[in-house]
Amino acid sequence: MSEAPLPVCTEPIVDGPVVFVDLETTGGLAGEHRITEVGVVEVADGQVSQWSTLVNPRQPIPPFIQQLTGITDEMVCDAPTFDEIAPSLFERLSGRLFVAHNANFDRGFLRAEFERIGLSFHPDMLCTVRLSRALFPSEKRHGLDALVERHALVPSGRHRALADADLLWQFWRRLPALVPPAVLRAQVERTVRRYRLAGEITGDLIEAAPAGHGVYVLYGENDAPLYVGRSVRVRQRLRALFAGERRSARELRLAGQVLRIEWQATGGELGALLVEAQWIEKLRPAFNRLPRRVKGEPSTAPWPFDGAVLFEQTDEATGERAFHVIDGWRYAGQASTRTEAAALVFGRGAGAFEPATWRILQTHLARGLRLLPVERTAPAI
After folding, report:
1. Neighbouring residues of 131: CB distance < 8 A, sequence distance ≥ 6
2. The domain 197-283 belongs to what CATH superfamily?
3. Quick one: CATH architecture of 2-193?
4. Which of 318, 305, 314 is nearest to 372 (CA)?
5. What are the two backbone dihedrals, phi and then psi, of residue 52, each rounded to the nearest 5 degrees?
6. What is the pLDDT of residues 68-78, one digit of tens each?
7. 325: exposed, middle or buried (C-beta count within 10 Å: 0-12, 13-18, 19+)?
8. E-strand spans in 125-274?
9. Any catalytic annotation for residue 159?
């Protein structure tokens, strides 16, 4: 390991400490490969320090990676394992903005390594590839070699962890002379991916949201409903709402008030339309436009089926199936099997007329929607 002081830095771009990080690894998959070297440039309280170490990956380094990095099996055989450096490295990185080039790669490897020994690593993160694209959109290349050439960075080596981390620190120091301070700080803030996004909402929570069709509810202070929305990709939509770079003023205002999220995967668009309409009517969230009666729309209508009906949807993104039940122009709910669907209507009469359900189904019935009868079988006791 090595550590050395560097000159005092100038006016910071962000508030708080920053670490510029680079890793060398045995391959590109965090679940299979391991770290061979860690390099960190730490900027805190106006001071800068460097830290680096080789790491014994406990697996062979492929020949082409040995050739690329110059790190051989012989060099790491007596190096500390990640378990041995983990406590001090975790302390060094914690509570600091994590800056890296293709940052998902570096953070992903560190997160996997820390998780193997029971440590949860969730830093706020800034990717210098994304930052370069945002600040210099007319440029086509944003790899580290392109940044070296474009911004006259001085490499002490390439494809070694500390040398590449130092290039990121050099790039960072160049930016105030290239971009107006207010613009720079605003763009950095937009580019940072924060782990804790708002209230109880974390990056891990967003990643647990449905990958495909679904409906979500955003709650604010005192658990007041703020917004009900639907999407063909709920997880992607929520990620864009809370961490997207191109959010509208309305989206920023909404995201700033959210403290909790609920969602429901629906298997397809029609199910999402029905759930969304029912939730809006029930919750009457502040940011939604409440439905109005359409001129000429009936206040009731005869139910053309003998009992409750259902339709099935399978989400193309996930392969998950969902059965949606309608009974008397009322959306009765969603089930994962036809047996569960029957339980939604067992023992009760037809539901009250819901204008939104009637309106949505009129459109889809005209398109050939196939509705099947629900077998009213008593649920098992």
Report:
1. 187, 188, 191
2. GIY-YIG endonuclease (3.40.1440.10)
3. 2-Layer Sandwich (3.30)
4. 305
5. -155, 160
6. 999 999 999 99
7. buried
8. 125-127, 196-198, 201-202, 214-219, 225-231, 260-265
9. yes
pLDDT score for 6? 43
Domains of the chain, by residue range, sit at 2-193, 197-283
Which runs of consecutive H residues, i.e. helices, occur in 216-371?
234-243, 249-255, 269-283, 338-343, 355-366
pLDDT score at 84 = 97
Residue whose tokens read 């029609």:
270
Instruction: Give the DSSP H or E segment for 323.
Output: strand 321-326
pTM: 0.67
Among candidate residues 33, 101, 151, 159, the one labeled active-site is 159
Res 44 pLDDT > 70: yes
**Strand duo 201-202 + 214-219: pairing:** unpaired
pLDDT digits (tens, 9 = 90+) for 104-134: 999 999 999 999 999 989 899 999 999 999 9
Judged against a pLDDT cut of 60, whether residue 7 lies above it is answered with: no
